[in-house]
Give the backbone structure.
Amino acid sequence: MQIHNLSKTPSILNTFMSELRDETTQKDSMRFRRNIERIGEIMGYELSKSLQFEPHNIETPLGTSTTVLHKKDIVLCSILRAGVPLHNGLLNYFDAAENAFISAYRQHKHNPDSFEIIVEYLACPSLEGKTLILADPMLATGQSMVATFEALKPFGTPKEIHLVSVIGAEEGVNYVSNAFNKDVHLWIAAIDDKLNEKGYIIPGLGDAGDLAFGNK
Ligand code: URA
Protein backbone atom coordinates (compact mmCIF):
# COMPACT_ATOMS: atom_id res chain seq x y z
CA MET A 1 0.00 0.00 0.00
CA GLN A 2 1.22 3.51 -0.79
CA ILE A 3 0.79 5.74 2.26
CA HIS A 4 0.43 9.50 1.73
CA ASN A 5 0.66 11.08 5.18
CA LEU A 6 -0.32 14.68 4.48
CA SER A 7 0.83 15.92 7.90
CA LYS A 8 4.43 15.47 6.71
CA THR A 9 4.14 18.81 4.88
CA PRO A 10 2.81 21.61 7.12
CA SER A 11 -0.21 23.29 5.53
CA ILE A 12 -3.65 24.73 6.33
CA LEU A 13 -4.58 21.10 7.05
CA ASN A 14 -2.78 21.47 10.42
CA THR A 15 -5.23 24.22 11.42
CA PHE A 16 -8.25 22.04 10.65
CA MET A 17 -6.65 19.05 12.42
CA SER A 18 -5.87 21.11 15.54
CA GLU A 19 -9.47 22.30 15.77
CA LEU A 20 -10.73 18.74 15.31
CA ARG A 21 -8.56 17.43 18.13
CA ASP A 22 -9.02 20.34 20.54
CA GLU A 23 -11.63 19.43 23.14
CA THR A 24 -12.70 23.10 23.37
CA THR A 25 -13.44 23.62 19.66
CA GLN A 26 -14.85 20.09 19.39
CA LYS A 27 -17.88 21.20 21.44
CA ASP A 28 -19.18 23.02 18.37
CA SER A 29 -20.42 20.01 16.39
CA MET A 30 -21.20 22.09 13.29
CA ARG A 31 -17.59 23.28 13.23
CA PHE A 32 -16.39 19.72 13.87
CA ARG A 33 -18.38 18.42 10.87
CA ARG A 34 -17.23 21.30 8.69
CA ASN A 35 -13.58 20.70 9.62
CA ILE A 36 -13.84 17.03 8.63
CA GLU A 37 -15.53 18.16 5.41
CA ARG A 38 -12.70 20.64 4.74
CA ILE A 39 -10.17 17.84 5.29
CA GLY A 40 -12.17 15.71 2.82
CA GLU A 41 -11.84 18.53 0.29
CA ILE A 42 -8.07 18.69 0.78
CA MET A 43 -7.82 14.90 0.49
CA GLY A 44 -9.89 15.05 -2.70
CA TYR A 45 -7.55 17.64 -4.17
CA GLU A 46 -4.42 15.72 -3.20
CA LEU A 47 -5.65 12.37 -4.48
CA SER A 48 -6.96 13.95 -7.68
CA LYS A 49 -3.31 14.40 -8.72
CA SER A 50 -2.96 10.63 -9.03
CA LEU A 51 -6.16 10.01 -11.05
CA GLN A 52 -6.25 9.29 -14.77
CA PHE A 53 -6.78 12.31 -17.00
CA GLU A 54 -8.00 12.59 -20.60
CA PRO A 55 -7.52 15.47 -23.06
CA HIS A 56 -10.51 17.75 -23.59
CA ASN A 57 -11.32 20.78 -25.68
CA ILE A 58 -13.46 23.46 -24.06
CA GLU A 59 -15.24 25.99 -26.25
CA THR A 60 -15.04 29.43 -24.66
CA PRO A 61 -17.08 32.32 -26.15
CA LEU A 62 -13.86 33.37 -27.94
CA GLY A 63 -12.03 30.20 -28.89
CA THR A 64 -10.95 26.70 -27.90
CA SER A 65 -9.06 25.92 -24.71
CA THR A 66 -7.35 22.54 -24.42
CA THR A 67 -7.09 20.86 -21.05
CA VAL A 68 -7.16 17.48 -19.33
CA LEU A 69 -10.07 16.27 -17.20
CA HIS A 70 -10.16 13.31 -14.85
CA LYS A 71 -12.22 10.29 -15.91
CA LYS A 72 -15.64 10.50 -14.30
CA ASP A 73 -15.64 6.91 -13.09
CA ILE A 74 -15.47 7.51 -9.32
CA VAL A 75 -17.48 5.68 -6.69
CA LEU A 76 -17.29 7.30 -3.24
CA CYS A 77 -18.01 4.88 -0.43
CA SER A 78 -18.26 5.91 3.21
CA ILE A 79 -18.81 4.12 6.43
CA LEU A 80 -21.80 5.40 8.41
CA ARG A 81 -22.11 7.48 10.40
CA ALA A 82 -18.76 9.20 11.10
CA GLY A 83 -17.87 8.97 7.40
CA VAL A 84 -20.67 11.32 6.32
CA PRO A 85 -18.84 14.69 6.72
CA LEU A 86 -15.71 13.24 5.07
CA HIS A 87 -17.92 11.92 2.26
CA ASN A 88 -19.46 15.37 1.80
CA GLY A 89 -16.03 16.96 1.53
CA LEU A 90 -14.92 14.50 -1.15
CA LEU A 91 -18.25 14.89 -2.96
CA ASN A 92 -17.80 18.68 -3.04
CA TYR A 93 -14.85 18.05 -5.37
CA PHE A 94 -15.93 14.83 -7.13
CA ASP A 95 -19.46 16.06 -7.68
CA ALA A 96 -20.11 13.62 -10.55
CA ALA A 97 -19.22 10.58 -8.40
CA GLU A 98 -21.56 7.69 -7.76
CA ASN A 99 -22.07 7.03 -4.07
CA ALA A 100 -22.08 4.00 -1.80
CA PHE A 101 -22.84 3.78 1.91
CA ILE A 102 -22.22 1.03 4.37
CA SER A 103 -22.94 0.72 8.06
CA ALA A 104 -20.14 -0.93 9.99
CA TYR A 105 -19.90 -0.72 13.73
CA ARG A 106 -17.83 -2.28 16.42
CA GLN A 107 -19.61 -4.93 18.43
CA HIS A 108 -17.51 -3.51 21.30
CA LYS A 109 -20.10 -0.81 21.96
CA HIS A 110 -22.63 -3.48 22.97
CA ASN A 111 -20.26 -6.19 24.14
CA PRO A 112 -17.07 -4.78 25.72
CA ASP A 113 -15.16 -8.03 25.12
CA SER A 114 -15.73 -8.07 21.36
CA PHE A 115 -14.04 -6.08 18.58
CA GLU A 116 -16.02 -7.82 15.82
CA ILE A 117 -17.23 -5.54 12.99
CA ILE A 118 -20.92 -5.82 12.15
CA VAL A 119 -22.03 -4.74 8.64
CA GLU A 120 -25.79 -4.16 8.53
CA TYR A 121 -26.59 -1.82 5.63
CA LEU A 122 -24.98 -1.58 2.22
CA ALA A 123 -26.01 0.39 -0.89
CA CYS A 124 -23.49 0.34 -3.72
CA PRO A 125 -23.45 0.73 -7.52
CA SER A 126 -21.29 -1.54 -9.73
CA LEU A 127 -17.58 -1.06 -8.97
CA GLU A 128 -16.35 -2.97 -12.01
CA GLY A 129 -13.45 -1.12 -13.66
CA LYS A 130 -14.15 2.08 -11.65
CA THR A 131 -12.11 4.19 -9.23
CA LEU A 132 -13.17 3.40 -5.69
CA ILE A 133 -12.59 5.98 -2.95
CA LEU A 134 -13.29 4.42 0.42
CA ALA A 135 -13.56 6.89 3.32
CA ASP A 136 -13.39 6.16 7.03
CA PRO A 137 -12.27 9.09 9.21
CA MET A 138 -10.79 7.04 12.07
CA LEU A 139 -8.49 4.17 11.13
CA ALA A 140 -8.24 2.65 14.60
CA THR A 141 -7.81 -1.12 14.30
CA GLY A 142 -8.34 -0.89 10.53
CA GLN A 143 -10.90 -3.69 10.76
CA SER A 144 -13.88 -1.58 9.59
CA MET A 145 -12.02 -0.54 6.45
CA VAL A 146 -11.08 -4.15 5.64
CA ALA A 147 -14.55 -5.52 6.55
CA THR A 148 -16.12 -2.86 4.32
CA PHE A 149 -13.88 -3.74 1.40
CA GLU A 150 -14.78 -7.44 1.82
CA ALA A 151 -18.49 -6.53 1.81
CA LEU A 152 -18.01 -4.52 -1.42
CA LYS A 153 -16.41 -7.40 -3.34
CA PRO A 154 -19.69 -8.74 -4.86
CA PHE A 155 -20.15 -5.35 -6.60
CA GLY A 156 -17.16 -5.88 -8.92
CA THR A 157 -13.45 -5.22 -9.12
CA PRO A 158 -12.39 -1.54 -9.12
CA LYS A 159 -9.47 -0.64 -11.37
CA GLU A 160 -8.06 1.71 -8.73
CA ILE A 161 -8.56 2.03 -4.97
CA HIS A 162 -7.95 5.07 -2.74
CA LEU A 163 -8.52 4.87 1.01
CA VAL A 164 -9.12 8.18 2.78
CA SER A 165 -8.82 8.67 6.49
CA VAL A 166 -8.33 11.57 8.89
CA ILE A 167 -6.46 9.95 11.80
CA GLY A 168 -5.01 6.47 11.93
CA ALA A 169 -3.23 4.52 14.65
CA GLU A 170 0.08 2.93 13.67
CA GLU A 171 -1.50 -0.48 14.34
CA GLY A 172 -4.54 0.18 12.11
CA VAL A 173 -2.42 1.52 9.28
CA ASN A 174 -0.26 -1.63 9.42
CA TYR A 175 -3.35 -3.88 9.49
CA VAL A 176 -4.84 -2.16 6.42
CA SER A 177 -1.47 -2.12 4.68
CA ASN A 178 -1.21 -5.91 5.03
CA ALA A 179 -4.76 -6.44 3.77
CA PHE A 180 -4.53 -4.35 0.57
CA ASN A 181 -2.34 -4.66 -2.54
CA LYS A 182 0.76 -2.59 -3.12
CA ASP A 183 -0.97 -0.36 -5.68
CA VAL A 184 -3.72 0.79 -3.26
CA HIS A 185 -3.27 4.36 -1.96
CA LEU A 186 -3.96 5.52 1.60
CA TRP A 187 -4.46 9.29 2.04
CA ILE A 188 -4.30 10.23 5.70
CA ALA A 189 -3.93 13.46 7.69
CA ALA A 190 -2.16 12.03 10.77
CA ILE A 191 -0.83 8.74 12.12
CA ASP A 192 -0.98 8.59 15.93
CA ASP A 193 0.89 6.38 18.38
CA LYS A 194 -1.45 3.77 19.68
CA LEU A 195 -4.89 2.47 20.64
CA ASN A 196 -6.26 2.31 24.18
CA GLU A 197 -7.90 -0.82 25.62
CA LYS A 198 -11.26 0.23 24.10
CA GLY A 199 -9.77 0.58 20.63
CA TYR A 200 -9.72 4.41 20.61
CA ILE A 201 -6.84 6.24 18.96
CA ILE A 202 -4.40 7.94 21.40
CA PRO A 203 -4.17 10.94 21.35
CA GLY A 204 -6.72 10.91 18.46
CA LEU A 205 -9.75 13.11 18.97
CA GLY A 206 -12.35 10.96 20.76
CA ASP A 207 -15.42 9.43 19.11
CA ALA A 208 -15.80 11.09 15.71
CA GLY A 209 -19.40 9.88 15.19
CA ASP A 210 -20.55 11.19 18.56
CA LEU A 211 -18.73 14.51 18.12
CA ALA A 212 -20.26 15.03 14.65
CA PHE A 213 -23.78 13.80 15.36
CA GLY A 214 -24.53 14.07 19.08
CA ASN A 215 -24.34 11.70 22.06
CA LYS A 216 -21.82 14.01 23.76
N1 URA B 1 -13.49 5.67 16.11
C1 URA B 1 -13.48 6.92 16.63
O1 URA B 1 -14.40 7.69 16.42
N2 URA B 1 -12.43 7.29 17.38
C2 URA B 1 -11.38 6.48 17.64
O2 URA B 1 -10.45 6.88 18.33
C3 URA B 1 -11.43 5.18 17.09
C4 URA B 1 -12.48 4.80 16.33
Summary: The longest strand covers residues 160-169.
